[in-house]
Amino acid sequence: MTTIYLDNNATTRVVPEVLEVMLTYFSELYGNPSSMHTFGGQVGIKIREAREQVAALLGASPDEIIFTSCGTESDNTAIRSALAAHPDRKHIVTSRVEHPAIKALCAHLAESGYRVTELPVDSEGRLNMEAFEQCLTPDTAIVSLMWANNETGVVFPVERAAEIAHNHGILFHTDAVQAVGKIPIDMRQNTIDMLSLSGHKLHAPKGIGVFYLRRGTRFSPFMIGGHQERERRGGTENTPSIIGLGKACELAARHMEEENSRVRQLRDKLENELLARIPRARVNGDRVNRLPNTTNISFEFVEGEAILLMLDRYGICASSGSACTSGSLQPSHVLRAMGVPFTMAHGSIRFSLSIENTEADVDLVIETLPGIIAQLREMSPFWQTEGQSCAASS
Amino acid sequence: MWEYTDKVKEHFLKPRNVGEVENPDGVAEVGSMACGDALRLTFKLDENKRIKEAKFKTFGCASAIAAASAMTEMIKGLTVEEAEKITNQDIAAFLGGLPQEKMHCSVLGQQALEKAIAYYRGAPMEKKEGQIVCECFGVTDLEIEKAVRENNLTTVEDVTNYTKAGGGCGSCHEKIQEIIDRVRAEVREPVRPKLTNIQKIRMIEDVLEKEIRPSLKNDGGDVELIDVVGNRVLVATRGACAVCRASQQTLKGFVEFKLRELVTPELIVEEVKA
């Protein structure tokens, strides 16, 4: 059975072009880039090139790129550095729909005396910009808002938010893990101070991330050790992955247009066909300001884990915001923040595409999912009663 | 990804007895859509009062569907008296086990069965008895007690895995711990071997000497063991206790409490003048 991989917001495949450039740096050119000899030094040159490739994708300058181990490390670096820059300030502003890398970190900081404001979102997952500006105080050390949401794909106006934060003299960080490579980002066109990205979301390997730090921003390192990354992140470089990420960024820039045309069309087809074929289904999140690859759809009266396991039989990979899939007992914090009713949240499925997907992938889901939902609804005690009466009344 | 047994997968993909029995003798609905799982069970008896037909409808994950399917298979052919002996452990065992976090699915199946039998016996489809402990998932103290007792649970996390209680906001964790402590204290007792009279008297003497008299003496009081008649422990008060108006409270609240705790819960302390 072939795998139909529609879970690219979870992770992506390392594409052959990326793997190919990496392989040499495991057991052939294994030198330490910090070494004085040519054997190591030549690796240092490749890392410099990778840094330039990442910078090019972001419209940044190479010296603003710091390699880390993952998006979570970059997020930790950003928040902790901002707090260290303003030890007198005790207030953090973020949103209710952030990734756990930010959410759990802020909850942790709240335990050690920081005040955390989690901004609400509306039913479409959009940020209330008025509430945002109102909550900024002279005590606010940092604003951290995600560029695009991993579950719904909803894009926040982070560039405008950064302006507002700066008007109040506050540092601005964005977790752009889901945005980089999917929508154009140009750091020359905005004033964002810090940004996090993760390699494995754009066809580079797991275990490599980037922390972008705008030139001139006060910084204190999170990982303290050697002089690597100009003493801004200690630890011997993950050379194969850094070189792979450089290549992946180059490819992402090249595929940006395809991502926003062909992938978007596939996503739209999938979404529209499922909505047309399955009654009592709805899209979660703002369909306008959204990543081109993501759709989050709820199917009422059925439960997400059951749907996923049925899809799994066809080799279709997706994810769900239901409680049962998370290991916790409550459905996704993102859907709850949007006020999605529990009945809908439990039956939510996220499909996230990439340039690797084909029309045949999407067609298979369109063919199989309506039957799966019908089968599970047939089994659901709510479908007969509420489902039919609601269907009859509408 | 959950590690389900083949039997769970099989019952999820090909669930037995989906639907609703016409003119049922037993009916129950448990769980709710907000909780993420709900189960409607109906059954019908034959002329020999055995369960002829049992059907279910489930909203929930794979293991919730499998547990309901398994339960309906298990009760077919049984009398109501036999069926009510089925525990959530039995349902899980029938499926070759469930992941710890999914044990609540077997509990849901057992609850539906219990409720449907109660309905058959004439109980109205009533509200839950007991007091709600977990507001998020509407779980009562009685349900938690039952799960703790039947599954030998020892931590709040266990209780959450089995009943969902405490899986939401977490504000009820203390109350759950209290219930666990209470039930654990109860269940420890039956394990105690039955004492002979000689053993009992020796233990009473021992506890009095080591645990009780030293504290009383600290306050200038004392007790003396006069006799043990069955479970009646006859003592005389001495020192400050003999003239203290609160000595009855001391005897019941402290002496008797300690003896019951450390010897056997049947003991009754009585004061005699001697």
TrEMBL record, chain B:
Keyword Membrane among UniProt keywords: no
InterPro entries xref list: BFD-like_2Fe2S-bd_dom, BFD-like_2Fe2S-bd_dom_sf, FSCA_dom_sf, N_fixation_NifU, NIF_FeS_clus_asmbl_NifU, NIF_FeS_clus_asmbl_NifU_C, NIF_FeS_clus_asmbl_NifU_N
Ranges where the BFD-like [2Fe-2S]-binding domain occurs: 132-181
Residues of the NIF system FeS cluster assembly NifU C-terminal domain: 204-269
Any one GO BP annotation for this protein: iron-sulfur cluster assembly
Domain (NIF system FeS cluster assembly NifU N-terminal): residue spans on this chain: 3-124
Pfam families, per database record: Fer2_BFD, NifU, NifU_N
Single GO MF descriptor: iron ion binding
Amino acids binding [2Fe-2S] cluster: C134, C136, C169, C172
Residues bound to Fe cation: C35, C61, C105
Keyword set, alphabetical order: 2Fe-2S, Iron, Iron-sulfur, Metal-binding, Nitrogen fixation
Top-level taxon of origin: Bacteria
Entry note: cofactor: Binds 1 Fe cation per subunit. Binds 1 [2Fe-2S] cluster per subunit.
Cofactor(s) the protein requires to work: Fe cation; [2Fe-2S] cluster
Function: May be involved in the formation or repair of [Fe-S] clusters present in iron-sulfur proteins.
Family of this protein: Belongs to the NifU family.
Name listed for the protein in its UniProt record: Nitrogen fixation protein NifU
Organism: Syntrophus aciditrophicus (strain SB)
